[in-house]
Hints:
By secondary structure, the chain is mostly helical. The protein has one domain: ABC transporter type 1, transmembrane domain (ABC transporter transmembrane region fold). The chain is built from 8 helices and no strands. It is elongated, with a radius of gyration of 23 Å. The mean pLDDT is 80.
Amino acid sequence: MVAITPRHWLVQLAKREQRKLMWAAVWGVLSGGQTVILVVGLAWLIDQLVITGRSPSSLVPVFIGLAAVVLLRSLFQALQESCSAQASLRIRQYARQALLDKIAALGPVWLTRQQSGALATQSVEHIEALDGYFARFHPQLRIVVALPLLILCVVGWLDYFVAIFLLLSAPLIPLFMALVGMGAERLNRDQFMAVSRLCSFY
C-alpha cells in the first residue's frame, strides 16, 4: 500500500470541493478588484476636489458610484466567505467520517491498543484545525496570483512608469514573504505533524 503524504491528502480533500473553492477564489478576486476601483476612484475624486477645485455637488454621481463599489466589495467578500466556509465544512465532515470508518474497519482489537484521548483529539481538534487551511489559505493561493496581475494591468494603464517600478520590485516580495514565513515555520511543522497522524489512518 502506497503511503499518502499530508500534502497529497490535503490535495485529495480539496478536490472534493473544488468547485466551491474555485468560486471562493473568484469572489475574492472580484472583491480585490472592487478595492482597486475604490482606490482609483478616491484618488481621482481628491484630485478633482483639491487640485481642480470642482464643487462637491458636481461630483455627487461619483460619490454614489463609490458607495456602490463599497457595497459590491462587501457582497463579494460575503460570497467568498460563504463559499469557503461551506467547502471547509463539507471537507471536515468527510474527513471525520472517513477517519471514523477507518477506525471501525480496524476493529475493536486494534482500538483497545490505542489511547482513546489521542483518537478523540485527532477526530475533533485536528480535523477542526483544517478549517483555516481550506476556508482561508486555499482560496488565497489563487487570489494572490490573479489579483497582483489585475493591479499591474490597472497601474500600467494609468502610469506605465509605476508599472515598470512594480515589476522591478516584484522579486523582493517573495524575499519578505520568506522572512515572515520563517517565524511561522514551527507552527506549520506542528500542524503537518497533526495532519500526518490523521492521514496515517488511510
